[in-house]
Amino acid sequence: MLDVRRLRLLRELSLRGTIVAVADALAFTPSAVSQQLSALEREAGIALLERTGRRVVLTPAGLNLVEHAEAVLARLEQATAELADARQGLAGPLRIGTFPTAARAIVPAALTTLAAHHPGLEPMVSEIDPAGVAHALRAGELDVALVHDYDFVPSPAEPGLASEPLCAEYLCLAALSPETAETTEGASISRWRDAPWITATPGTLCHAMTLRACQAAGFTPRVRHQVDEFATVLALVAAGQGVALVPQLGVAEPVPGVTLTRLPVHRRTRIAFRRGADGHPAVAAITAALRTAVPEELRPGP
């Protein structure tokens, strides 16, 4: 009989690439991960890994077993959800991941609704960049998370995860020059090709979005500042330090001297969870609460 915990380690190895990365993510030692994977090979009766020096790659049999592991883990999530649904009342911790804008604009109202309907739940919110959500969900560090993607930076399908749409918002070009602003959708960012730019830090989706949006307009932005918090970005724009792309929810309130030009570029937010966990009553409860917290104009259509 194949051990489910070892199947999970094999799946993580296929995604993270090295035994050290798996060990770091799951709080094991590399030696313990290697021992468990060796035990899985003995259970399977066939080589699942090929070791070349320090590198480890999955054999065809190992890759095939990972596909079965995905199905097994999804069914276990479903079984857990059904057992939780059979119990009376919801209680215990609910670990929620979110990016900063949603943490300010959506999550607080959702938690108020959640507390009113399910006072036994203990929501625990952590800020996390969407790029790190998949690993955190698969590792069991989060139960549900808000993620986003952009028109120029679509999110790839993640093994073992599922998601549902929550909201969509347009992006604005934040600039200090009101006399050149356009207020209708369809404005081009190419007019700011010679301006200094303020972007998010490298490695984030927001940073990639700005670079690709500018490249699609025919230029590479001249980056002066790299800042993640949109309130700070807008303050720098107001100080004449450059222009920036800011999502609709990133503008908490008007900033004197800053003009926002609506662009035909959008950010979409989704609720992500482990595949099979959508039927879990706690996941369903926070999903419903998040939907009620989204402003009407940002909700997806039927």
Automatic annotation (TrEMBL):
Protein name in the entry: LysR family transcriptional regulator
PANTHER family, A to Z: LYSR SUBSTRATE-BINDING, TRANSCRIPTIONAL DUAL REGULATOR HCAR-RELATED
InterPro entries referenced in this protein's UniProt entry, alphabetically: ArsR-like_HTH, LysR_HTH_N, LysR_subst-bd, WH-like_DNA-bd_sf, WH_DNA-bd_sf
Pfam families, sorted: HTH_1, LysR_substrate
Family as reported in the entry's similarity comment: Belongs to the LysR transcriptional regulatory family.
Keyword Transcription regulation: yes
Molecular function (Gene Ontology), one example: DNA-binding transcription factor activity
CDD domains in UniProt: HTH_ARSR, PBP2_LTTR_like_6
Record PROSITE patterns: HTH_LYSR (PS50931)
Keywords, comma-separated and alphabetical: DNA-binding, Transcription, Transcription regulation
UniProt organism field: Streptomyces abyssalis
Domain HTH lysR-type: 2-59
Signal sequence range: none
Keyword Transmembrane helix: no
Gene Ontology cellular component annotations, sorted alphabetically: protein-DNA complex
